[in-house]
Specification:
346 residues; alpha/beta; Rossmann fold; Dihydrodipicolinate Reductase, domain 2; 6-stranded parallel beta sheet; 12 helices; 13 strands; globular
Length: 346
C-alpha cells in the first residue's frame, strides 16, 4: 500500500484528495495535515467523511511526515511547498504539489505573476509538469511533481493537438473560461459570499490571471515557439466545473478531417479524455465528480476559425483527481486506479 500524507487536507482540493484516496485500493492516508483544524477530528470538519475518515488533523510537520509516508500531497497556497522541501525530505518521499510553485520553468516569470520570491528555485529544473496525457513518461521517475492548475488543464488539453499538429495560428488564440466557486478555495472572501455570486456572472483577473503564463509555456513547448495568448476567466454561480472555450485562426488547408485526425492521434486511447466530436458542446454537468475531460469543437467556415471547447471538474481532473492520476503513474499503477468515477447527475 502507498502511504500518503496531505498538507492542507481541509481545503477544497485537500478534501477531494481525502475522498479519492480513501477509496483507492492501493493507497492509504497516513497523515491528515491541517494548520487550521489541528487536533480536531477530520470528520467533524467534513461530515461527509463521518465513519470513514475519523482521524485527527495533525500539524503540517513535513519532516516527521516524510518519515512515515511514500508521497506527500501539498494542497496549499503558493510559496508554502517551496519553503518546506529540501534534499533530506526528497530522499525519503515523493512530492506532488498542487500549488504553482514548480509549474513554471522560468523563476522570474513565477515571481512576476505570483508576486513572491521563490524559496527553492534549485528544484525547478527537475520538477515535472504533471499533465498526465502529455508528460506521462517524464512523470514516471520524478520526485517532484507539479500538478497543473484547473484552468490550465482544461485549456491545454483542449488546444494541445491543434497546436502540436500546427493546424492553427497560435498567435490568434483566445481562451474564454468559466469556473465554479470552489475554484476560489474555502477561505472566506466577500466576493465569494452567496449574495455576491448567486444570480451573477463576472470576469476577473482580466489580462492578469496567474494561469496565463502556465498555459502559454506548455502550449509553447507543443508549438516549438513562444506563445502569447488572451485568457479571461469568469466566475459562475455553481459549485464545481470548468468550461473553456478557445478560439483560433485555422491555418490554410486545415479542414474537419484534419482536426478530427489530430484529436484522435493524441487522445483516442486516453481513458480520461472523451472526444465528443465536431459540433458537440461539452457541459460541466456531464463531468461533475469525475476525472474526465470532455472535448468538442466546431469549425467556423465563415470566419476561418475553430472554436474548441473543453469541460472538467475543477476539483477532480483540475486538482485532486489529476494528482492521484499522477501518483498512480509515479508508483507504477494502472493510471485509472481509484479514479473510475462515473460523473454525478443530477
Amino acid at each position: 500500500m502507498i502511504k500518503a500524507g496531505i498538507i492542507g487536507a481541509t481545503g477544497y482540493a485537500g478534501a477531494e484528495l481525502v475522498r479519492l484516496l480513501w477509496q483507492h485500493p492501493s493507497a492509504e492516508i497516513a497523515w491528515l495535515g491541517s494548520r487550521s483544524y489541528a487536533g480536531q477530528k477530520y470528520s467533524d470538519v467534513y461530515r461527509n467523511m463521518t465513519g470513514l475518515a475519523d482521524g485527527e488533523c495533525l500539524p503540517d510537520n513535513i519532516d516527521e511526515m516524510a518519515e512515515q509516508v511514500d508521497v506527500i500531497f501539498t494542497a496549499t497556497p503558493q510559496g508554502l511547498c517551496a519553503s518546506l522541501i529540501n534534499e533530506d525530505i526528497l530522499k525519503k518521499t515523493k512530492i506532488i504539489d498542487l500549488s504553482a510553485d514548480f509549474r513554471l520553468k522560468d523563476v522570474s516569470v513565477y515571481e512576476k505573476w505570483y508576486g513572491i520570491t521563490h524559496a527553492a528555485p534549485q528544484y525547478i529544473p527537475e520538477a515535472v509538469y504533471g499533465l498526465c496525457e502529455i508528460n506521462r513518461e517524464k512523470i514516471r521517475n520524478t520526485r517532484i511533481l507539479a500538478n497543473p492548475g484547473c484552468y490550465t488543464t482544461c485549456s491545454i488539453l483542449t488546444l494541445y493537438p491543434l497546436v502540436k499538429e500546427k493546424l492553427i495560428d497560435p498567435s490568434t488564440i483566445i481562451i474564454d473560461a468559466k469556473s465554479g466557486t470552489s475554484g476560489a478555495g474555502r477561505g472566506a472572501k466577500t466576493q465569494n459570499l452567496f449574495c455576491e455570486v448567486n444570480e451573477n456572472m463576472k470576469a476577473y483577473g482580466v489580462a492578469t490571471h496567474r494561469h496565463t503564463p502556465e498555459i502559454e509555456e506548455q502550449l509553447g513547448y507543443a508549438a516549438g515557439e513562444q506563445i502569447l495568448l488572451s485568457f479571461t476567466p469568469h466566475l459562475v454561480p455553481m459549485n464545481r466545473g470548468i468550461l473553456a472555450t478557445a478560439y483560433a485562426k485555422l491555418l490554410p488547408g486545415t479542414d474537419s478531417a484534419a482536426v478530427e485526425k489530430a484529436y484522435r492521434k493524441y487522445y483516442e486511447k486516453e481513458y480520461f479524455i472523451r472526444l465528443l466530436g465536431e459540433g458537440a458542446c461539452p457541459e460541466t454537468r456531464w463531468v461533475e465528480g469525475s476525472n474526465f475531460t470532455d472535448i468538442g469543437w466546431k469549425l467556423d467556415q465563415r470566419t476561418g476559425r475553430i472554436i474548441a471547447m473543453g469541460a472538467i471538474d475543477n476539483l477532480v481532473k483540475g486538482a485532486a483527481g489529476q494528482a492521484v492520476q499522477n501518483m498512480n503513474i509515479m508508483f507504477g499503477l494502472e493510471e485509472n486506479t481509484g479514479l473510475k468515477l462515473v460523473p454525478v447527475f443530477p
